[in-house]
Amino acid sequence: MSNILTLNEYKNSRIIVMGSLQGEYYKLIDFLYNQDFNYKDILIFTGDFINFDNKESSQLISFIKENKNILSVKGYNEKLFIDSIDTNRTIHTKFDYSEDDIDFLRKLPLIVELNNTLYIVNSGFNFELRDDLQEPDYTIFKTNKPFDSDWYN
Known about the structure:
- The chain is α/β, with parallel strands linked by helices.
- It has five helices and eight strands, in the order E-E-H-E-H-E-H-H-E-E-E-E-H.
- The chain has a three-stranded mixed β-sheet with strand order 1-5-6, with no helix packed on it.
- The model is unreliable at 132-153 (pLDDT under 50).
């Protein structure tokens, strides 16, 4: 599976980019209502939409999964959550989650590319351009070391 999600069919849509929601589902719904958000609009999270201490995170995961016009890149919180599960570390959350939620979070892309002009990524990842490129090509990143281990241990 690619770590880059490329979107080219949204040239005529209103695009809203939002970062670090931290599980605030009801604040998001209020914001979208006030913006007259509809099925033609695109909402993209820059990651960190879940928060271990916010019980609304489960509603937010469901909301993103159920709406094809809402996307997210994987952020630090999502990565930490998945890493905790994958390494059998004890995880204390105030929100409920299912195996389907875990699978969904695991498959989030690291980069969303819009119309070959805009690249959305969470700042919690370390990216390096391929060494063989003469000029920067921002669609190609090495993502084999997404975090410094010191950062989240």
